[in-house]
Amino acid sequence: MTIKRHTLAALGLVAVLAAVLAATANAKSSDTRISGAGSSFVFPLVSQWIPALGQAYGYQVAYASVGSGAGIAQVTARTVDFGASDAPLTADQFAACKGCVQIPWALGATAIMVNIHGLNKQLHLNGKVLADIYLGKITSWDDAAIKAINPGANLPSTKITPIYRSDNSGTTYNFTDYLQNISKDWRAKIGRGVNANWPAGVGGKGSSGVSGVLSHTDGGIAYADIAYALTNHFQVAAVKNAAGKYVTPGIKQISAAASTIKSVPGNNEVHIVNPSAKNTNAYPIATFTYVILPTKSDKAAELRKMVFWTLTKGQSYGTKLLFVPIPKVVLAASEKTLKQIST
Amino acid sequence: VFQGVTGLSGAAVVGLAILIAVEVFAQASGAMSKFGVHFVYARVWDPVRNVYGAGDFIVGTVVSSFLALLLAAPISIAIALFLTELAPRFLRGPIGLLVEMLASIPSVVLGLWGILVLGPVLQNTVEPALNSAFGFLPFFRGTPSEVGMLNAVVLLTIMIVPIVTSISRELFTRVPPELREGAVGLGLTRWEAIRGVAIPYVGPGITAALILGLGRALGEAIAVAQVIGSATGIHWSLFAPADTIASRIANQYFGASSQLQIDSLLYLAAILLVITLITNVLAQIVVRQAERRGVL
What end-to-end distance do the CA atoms of chain B give, in Å? Predict the structure, then answer.
């Protein structure tokens, strides 16, 4: 039968490709090939770093933007030299990774995007309203709670469609981390994680899936990293911070949030959602993203050198991509952790 | 030697299938001992609190696959009949080839098409039309949405149609000409001959083809994950988001937060294996019957 022949041919092709890939992966490179995989959030920044690292040290870095979850899985299996994740490793993930460390190496933010036909000005949101929307308690855009914080906006009675990431995502972690920080209800019912038991709305696979649904759904609301939101020209909401100010995410507002950090815990897990009112410009949904390294590696020296470069010189490449240089206290902790990497 | 090689290949395939099944069940044991049989009908999936159940996804899997089958069956049989009985000879080859090419579209590409092209059409045209025509049924109520059960059903239908069509076509061409000539000789019209002779003759074979298609639909992960809206809950409305076992596994396996979540996803996989096993056994039984009647 023809179908069978096609399938066989396809299988043959796959087998050949797999063999070629395996051969390239196993090819004993003379010295400085470094492979990484993970976070798609940090990918634009890593793509800027790769040529610069090539010039600085002659390293050939290959990075696969496969998502934080897959990045963790691959470094756990040691099929790559480093992983990258926007969510800190969980206890189970640390255990499975057997001697891995996480190092915050970039700082960005999650934007809240909306698609509301007929809205005449930038939408204002606060944590409680946002939580109630995703809890399914606030269901239309002309709800009194939304009207109260948007004076002068003509909010339509359109039904709200909350859109979330259906795959495991560091952005979801950042978003739910913020919601549980600000809403008791959210903390009690949902909590925080790379995925959640969403009580309302629809899921999209990847940022592209989420934005696909958002762009066609009048009344939709979704979240994605800020660079993604801006390059795709979505309306971005201003979110109320602890000081009571409505803030649009940008370089200044994210660094303001980061400036509130005083110390870094031993496992380098840093949370900067809903920072204290001290810095009135702080954007409340910012996050660190992490590089995950095995403490024992054949390429320990190269990895140390590469990550040190990204933490120092590399930070300046972030600005136009809306990544903010990591604050000094975090840099110090990162450098300290980096010393644990050895052969 | 030939017998040895073929025998070995056969044994290898069987062995591999058994190994995979054993491995899936072994890996799932963590969740099995934790949640027991309760997992099968529990309707919760909470990665934050680490509580899992398969109820919603079993329903989503069965509903999406059977609805797709329901749509695919008449379409496929109609195409097969058209290709064998009605179409001018020069069209049969090209059309048949095109239908079979549908089967070779990678599901991730089909999924992209589903979200970019099909979704908006469903949302803006098809679903409002269904709602105004059949809104008295609970299946067609609710807000039209570009992702949801209906989108998944349509994609699965597109995946099943080429499988069922190509097998059915093969079957129709094998209807003995004597039978058909006899029927026409008795004064039956072409349609009566098809309905009275050809369809009963190939019926069991087509049933088997449909069950093969069903197996494809049950296991489809990526395309469904892209368009079904991945939500828990069971809704009457076809416009609402839902989720299937395969899609849930595709979405949550990488970067799962805990070992228990991974175990639970493998428990889902084990349930899916059992469901496909049942449909395949059914297919075997039907094919046997067909063989006895000399169709295949």
Answer: 29
The pTM assigned to this predicted structure is: 0.84
> A159: which strand partners?
A140
Question: Over 90: is that where the pLDDT of B287 sits?
Answer: no
- CB-CB neighbors (< 8 A) of A201 in chain B: 231, 241
Q: Which residues of B touch A5 (CB under 8 A)?
A: none
Backbone angles phi, psi at A236, to 5 degrees: -105, 130
Best mutation target among A163, A172, A213 (most B Cβ atoms within 10 Å) is A213
Rounded to 5°, the CA angle A22-A27-A29 comes to 145
Q: Bridge-partner residues for A287, per DSSP?
A: A108
What's the rounded Cα separation, in Å, for the pair B163 and B170?
11
pLDDT reading at A6 higher than 60: no
Given B230, B256, B258, which is nearest A203 (Cβ)? B230
Contact residues for A292 (Cβ-Cβ < 8 A; gap 6+): A38, A71, A72, A75, A82, A83, A84, A85, A89, A97, A100, A101, A102, A103
E strand intervals along chain B: 45-46, 51-52
Chain B residues with CB-CB distance to A196 below 8 A: 46-48
Torsional sign, CA B60, B63, B66, B69 = negative
Other beta carbons less than 10 A from residue B213's beta carbon: 26
Q: Is B199 on the interface with A (CB under 8 A)?
A: no
- Percent of chain A topping pLDDT 90: 62
